[in-house]
Design goal:
5-stranded mixed sheet; alpha/beta; 323 residues
């Protein structure tokens, strides 16, 4: 291959995305594949290898650089993986060849993408949740991100689980009436709550599918269901609490704050979050993400190679990197 090329990979719970760019920041190709999380589970290594290999191959194909990742040695590559690196680096190194290869957690790439590689705080709320911040002086902190059993407050999974719990409470006469029960039976195609609970405990409804019910909870909240409204309000409050904790640990209350992930796709959540953040951290600057996390990983690849990112690279990414 001719020229120097850089690679960014965002490996998440819903999909894996690869971005290939040249040394000046021109996006040459993108590729997507399936999820690359749960690599520790049976078949997880094969799923991770397939997701990374397919996404990089698709990006190289769109860029017309090569037909196979084995044919390319990148100047630098940064792989941002949900749940951190653990043994994923071993799998990724067998697929991606780079002079400088970094495999790490997805949060730094999400922040780099959101702020254009500047200091700040990013709130990631998809299936799981975590808040991550950097002060620009070498200090980085993380709040939350303890997983679906011990944390993930405000995430899609947390919202969905709270919705199901409150629906069952209403069924047992412990809580006020709500539309969430009927929505759950319809969403999961279950005949009754016993059947639904059995499917969840038997693993026939996995975490990702369960988290998809969060959309129904938000819809119910927008349509006036008071139980769903309280769940969404509690979710936002948790996320803002994590931001406040992160800002205090960074000793910076005037930092930029950006939000990414499926939970923030709804206007209701974005409005609730903006209102709560103003109340709890009035000096913070809420910004729209500048780039997506895959481009954030690419920015970290440039940094690993000592290439900035420069103003020219950022400008070219602005022109060629938006989806």
């Amino acid at each position: 291959m001719n020229g120097r090329f850089f690679l960014g990979i965002d490996g998440g719970q819903s999909h894996t995305e690869a971005v290939v760019a040249d040394a000046r920041g021109h996006i040459r190709g993108r590729g997507r594949s399936g999820p690359s999380n749960h690599a520790e589970q049976p078949g997880g290594r094969q799923r991770l290898a397939r997701a990374v290999g397919e996404s990089v191959r698709a990006a190289l194909g769109e860029a017309k650089i090569a037909a196979d990742p084995a044919e390319v040695e990148f100047e630098a590559a940064h792989c941002a993986m949900t749940g951190g690196a653990d043994f994923k680096e071993e799998v990724i190194r067998s697929i991606v060849r780079a002079r400088r290869l970094v495999v790490g957690h997805d949060a730094p790439a999400a922040l780099a993408g959101a702020t254009g590689a500047e200091p700040g705080i990013v709130v990631i709320a998809g299936t799981g949740s975590v808040v991550y911040g950097e002060d620009g002086r070498g200090r980085a902190v993380r709040s939350g991100g303890w997983g679906y059993l011990l944390g993930d407050e405000g995430s899609g999974y947390w919202i969905a689980l709270e919705g199901l719990r409150r629906a069952l409470h209403a069924e047992d006469g412990l809580d006020e009436l709500t539309s969430l029960g009927g929505r759950a039976l319809c969403h999961f195609n279950a005949g009754d709550f016993r059947e639904l609970a059995a499917a969840i405990y038997a693993g026939r409804i996995d975490r990702d599918r369960l988290a998809s019910f969060a959309v129904e909870v938000e819809t119910a909240a927008r349509q006036g269901d008071s139980v769903a409204q309280r769940i969404m309000s509690d979710a936002v409050s948790w996320l803002v609490r994590l931001v406040v904790a992160c800002s205090r640990r960074l000793q910076c209350e005037t930092c930029k704050v950006a939000c990414v992930g499926g939970v923030f796709r709804g206007e209701m959540v974005r409005d609730l979050f903006a209102h709560e953040l103003r109340a709890q951290l009035p000096a913070a600057h809420l910004i729209a993400p500048r780039f997506d996390p895959a481009v954030g990983a690419l920015l970290l690849a440039y940094r690993a190679a000592g290439c900035g990112p420069t103003a020219e690279i950022l400008s070219n990414l602005e022109r060629t990197g938006r989806r």
